[in-house]
Write a sequence for this structure.
């Protein structure tokens, strides 16, 4: 079993997604929805297909795919009850949402025509097992479509901010479970195809989506970055008002240290997307 797959880490992650569920779709002006839309455009689901959406979250990918495959249907699986309940609350006749781990699918071999994983792989307890499971439940010739954040295209402002989180946690005697840094490589063009090929897929298409923007100040910056992952979220919430203000002062200073004012408070949201076939 992957050393990252401790129960503590899974609980921490599910707790994070449970907490952010109500604001997930509106985060960064609907960023997750834009990424889901692009992934579905790339994979072009066809009418009548049976689809599994792994780590479905609020069902952004699942609902877009469902509209394309009618009279086929989509099953979305996830571990976060709150994400799933938002997915279920959206109107649809051909979707079903189930609590299930990506690494332990209950479906029979060769059940689906398409498996989608929108920004999910890097969060899974055991990404290798999850890809093997996706392969097992796909029909021969079936396809998998994934998006994964490409961290190497983060801005200097993001790098500086995220590098400061672990020291900040230590300073406040806070300790949180974390995945190994290998996960931050999953969205790199030299890594994702390898992961897919190791699981028995042939990569058909690889493309990138890069978006970005700027916040106006440190408060907006920390609010935005809190939604970016379990560590910033838990840490920023744990700080309380006084230390939060201290953090914002440090963020202001760090942004000033970048030299070029154009770099301050600038962020990128970059994704690598892949479509691959089960041979
Ligand atoms: C960043 S969200 C992506 C949601 C959605 N696919 C999208 O494109 O917006 C990652 C999702 O993976 C789910 N997840 C994490 N670990 C999981 C696991 N082992 N099995 C199933 N889902 C998992 C989380 O609960 C979360 O909803």
């Amino acid at each position: 079993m992957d050393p990252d797959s401790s129960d503590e880490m899974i609980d921490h992650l599910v707790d994070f997604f449970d907490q952010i569920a109500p604001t997930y779709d509106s985060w960064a002006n609907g960023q997750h929805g834009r990424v889901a839309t692009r992934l579905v455009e790339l994979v072009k689901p066809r009418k009548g297909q049976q689809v599994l959406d792994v780590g479905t979250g609020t069902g952004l990918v699942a609902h877009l795919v469902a509209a394309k495959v009618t009279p086929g249907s989509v099953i979305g699986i996830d571990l976060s009850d709150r994400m799933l309940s938002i997915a279920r609350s959206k109107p649809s006749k051909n979707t079903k949402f189930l609590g299930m781990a990506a690494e332990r699918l209950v479906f029979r071999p060769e059940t689906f025509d398409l498996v989608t994983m929108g920004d999910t792989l890097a969060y899974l307890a055991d990404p290798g097992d999850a890809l093997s499971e996706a392969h097992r439940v796909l029909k021969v010739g079936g396809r998998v479509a994934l998006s994964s954040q490409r961290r190497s295209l983060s801005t200097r402002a993001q790098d500086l901010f995220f590098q400061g989180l672990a020291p900040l946690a230590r300073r406040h005697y806070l300790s949180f479970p974390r995945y190994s840094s290998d996960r931050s490589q999953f969205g790199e063009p030299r890594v994702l195809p390898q992961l897919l090929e190791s699981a028995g897929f042939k990569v058909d298409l690889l493309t990138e989506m890069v978006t970005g923007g700027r916040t106006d100040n440190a408060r907006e910056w920390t609010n935005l970055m809190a939604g970016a992952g379990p560590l910033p979220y838990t840490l920023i919430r744990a700080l309380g008002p006084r230390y939060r203000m201290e953090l914002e002062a440090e963020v202001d200073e760090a942004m000033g240290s970048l030299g070029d004012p154009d770099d301050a408070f600038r962020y990128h949201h970059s994704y690598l997307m892949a479509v691959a076939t089960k041979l």
In short: Residues 11 and 246 are 29 Å apart (CA to CA). Residues 13-14, 17, 32, 36, 55-57, 60-61, 77-80, 83, 101-103, 118-120, 123-125 surround S-adenosylmethionine (CB under 6 Å).
